[in-house]
Design goal:
- The protein is built from twelve helices and 20 strands.
- It is of the alpha+beta class and 389 residues long.
- Bound molecules: 8-demethyl-8-dimethylamino-flavin-adenine-dinucleotide and P-hydroxybenzoic acid.
- 8-demethyl-8-dimethylamino-flavin-adenine-dinucleotide binds at residues 8-14, 31-34, 39, 44-47, 101, 123, 126, 157-159, 161-163, 184, 186, 265, 284-285, 292, 295-299, 301.
Length: 389
C-alpha cells in the first residue's frame, strides 16, 4: 500500500491526526495493534482543555460532547479541613470540559467510515524502516500475511510502549525521566459524584482525587505504594480510604457502589527529544508522559496533533516544509510547560516517602500562599485550563 502519512496507533492522538489529515484531503492509514473494544475498555482521562474541545469542533465531531460533556468553572485543592477553590472562569475566563477519553475515542472511531479514514486494527509486529530517508515504510502482519505501507511521513502515535520512539537512533534521542514512588489506584462506579467539581486532596494518609464522568458516574483515585496490588483493595476498603482522605464533608456526600473498573497506574514524568527525526514525527504519549495530577496527558497529545496536522497539511497542500522543521521545538516548548505544571502539582499534593518535616512545611506554606493569593490562583488556573497553542 502507498500513502502520504502512515499513522501508528489508534488512540486519541492517532485518530485525531487521521481525521484532521483526511479533512484536508491528505492520504493516510492508521495501524493499531489492538481491537476497538479493547481500546474502548481502557479507562483514562476525564478532563479536556480548550485545545482538545476545539479540535473536536474543527472536525465537526463535537455533537455528543456538547450534549453530554460537563463544563467546569472551577476545581478544589483540599488541605486538611480547608478547601481552596480555584475559580478558573473568574480568574482566567476559561473552563474545562469533563468528557471521558473513552467517549472522545468512540466519537472518533464511529466517524472513520463516513470520513474515509482507514484503520487497520490487530496489526501485529509493526516495524518502522528508513525513518531518516524521504521514503520510509512500515511493515506489519495481519491475518497471517505480511503487509507493507510506503509513505512520505510516519506519525508515531503509539503511546509510551510503542515501537516509534525506539526507531530514533540512541545517538540522536535524549530521555528525561522522573519515576514517582507511588501509583494511582482508580475506581469507576455508577454513583453520583460527591461534589459538583473535582477535589484534589493532600491528606496525611496520602493523596485522593474525586472526579467524575457524568452526573451519574464517578471516578475516584488514591495514591498507593508501587508494591500494592489491586486484589488487596476490595471496593469497601477503597471507599473507606477515600472517605478519610477526602475529608468529612466530601465523605458525607459520597455514594458508594460496586466498581465498574479498578486499576493501578504508575506515575511518571518523561520527555523524549527531539520529537521529529527525519520523516518520523512523534505525538502524544509516545514522546512524553506526565503524572495525571493536572489532567494534561490527553490534552498534550491533542496539542501535539494540532501542530503535527498543520505541519503535514502545509507540506502536502502548500509544499511548505516550515511546520515540519519547526514541529519538534514548537511541540516541546508546550510539553515542557505542562510537564512542569504536572510535576509541581504532584509535588504539592502527594506525601513522598522520602519527605521530612521541612518538605511538609513547604507544602503547607505553598497551600497557604495559594489560599491567600489571587496571583497564585491565577497561575494555577491558567495552567489547568491549558496554555495557548
Ligand atoms: P494511547 O492512548 O496510549 O494510544 C496509543 C495507541 O497505540 C497503540 N499501540 C500500537 N499500535 C500498533 N503497533 C504497536 N506496536 C503499538 N503499541 C501501541 C495502542 O494500542 C494505543 O491504542 O496514547 P495517545 O493517543 O498518545 O493518548 C495519550 C493519552 O491516552 C494519555 O496521555 C492520557 O490518558 C493520560 N491521562 C489523562 N490525560 C488528560 O489529559 N486528562 C486526564 O484527566 C487524564 N487522566 C490519564 C488519566 C492516564 C491515566 N492512565 C491510566 C495512564 C488518568 C489515568 C489513570
Ligand atoms: C479523571 O477523571 O480520570 C481525572 C481527572 C483529573 C485528573 C486526573 C484524572 O487530574
Amino acid at each position: 500500500m502507498k500513502t502520504q502519512v502512515c499513522i501508528i496507533g489508534a488512540g486519541p492522538a492517532g485518530l485525531l491526526l487521521g481525521h484532521l489529515l483526511r479533512a484536508e484531503g491528505v492520504d493516510c492509514v492508521v495501524l493499531e495493534r489492538k481491537d476497538p473494544d479493547y481500546i474502548l475498555s481502557r479507562i483514562r482521562a476525564g478532563v479536556l482543555e480548550t485545545i482538545t474541545v476545539k479540535l473536536m469542533e474543527r472536525l465537526g465531531l463535537d455533537d455528543r460532547m456538547k450534549k453530554e460533556g460537563i463544563w467546569h468553572d472551577g476545581f478544589n485543592l483540599a488541605d486538611g479541613e480547608r478547601l481552596i477553590r480555584v475559580d478558573m472562569a473568574e480568574l482566567v475566563n476559561k473552563r474545562v470540559m469533563v468528557y471521558g477519553q473513552t467517549e472522545i475515542t468512540r466519537d472518533l472511531m464511529d466517524a472513520c467510515d463516513d470520513r474515509d479514514l482507514q484503520v487497520e486494527y490487530e496489526a501485529d509486529d509493526v516495524a518502522l524502516h528508513d525513518v531518516d530517508s524521504d521514503a520510509p515504510c512500515v511493515t506489519y502482519y495481519k491475518d497471517g500475511a505480511e503487509h507493507r505501507v510506503d509513505c512520505r511521513f510516519i506519525a508515531g502515535c503509539d503511546g509510551f510502549h510503542g515501537p516509534s520512539r525506539k526507531a530514533v537512533p540512541a545517538s540522536v534521542g535524549k530521555e528525561y525521566e522522573r519515576v514517582y514512588p507511588f501509583g494511582w489506584l482508580g475506581i469507576l462506579a455508577d454513583v453520583p459524584p460527591c461534589n459538583h467539581e473535582l477535589i484534589y486532596a493532600n491528606h496525611e494518609r496520602g493523596f485522593a482525587l474525586a472526579s467524575m464522568r457524568s452526573e451519574t458516574r464517578s471516578r475516584y483515585y488514591v495514591d498507593v505504594p508501587l508494591t500494592e496490588k489491586v486484589e488487596g483493595w476490595s471496593d469497601e476498603r477503597l471507599w473507606d480510604e477515600l472517605a478519610v482522605r477526602l475529608g468529612p464533608e466530601a465523605a458525607a456526600s459520597m455514594t458508594r457502589g460496586p466498581s465498574l473498573e479498578k486499576s493501578i497506574a504508575p506515575l511518571r514524568s518523561y520527555v523524549f527529544a527531539p520529537m521529529r527525526h527525519g520523516s518520523l514525527m512523534l505525538c502524544g504519549d509516545s514522546a512524553h508522559i506526565v503524572p495525571p495530577t493536572g489532567a494534561k496527558g490527553l490534552n498534550l497529545a491533542a496539542s501535539d496533533v494540532h501542530y503535527a496536522a498543520n505541519a503535514l497539511i502545509g507540506f502536502f497542500t502548500a509544499s511548505s516544509n516550515e511546520g515540519i522543521v519547526a514541529y519538534s521545538d514548537t511541540a516541546l516548548a508546550r510539553v515542557w510547560k505542562s510537564e512542569r505544571f504536572s510535576w509541581s502539582l504532584t509535588r504539592l499534593m502527594h506525601r513522598f516517602p522520602e519527605d521530612g518535616e521541612f518538605e511538609r512545611a513547604m507544602q503547607v506554606a505553598e497551600l497557604d500562599y495559594i489560599a491567600s493569593s489571587r496571583a497564585a490562583q491565577t497561575s494555577i488556573a491558567e495552567n489547568y485550563v491549558g496554555l495557548p497553542v
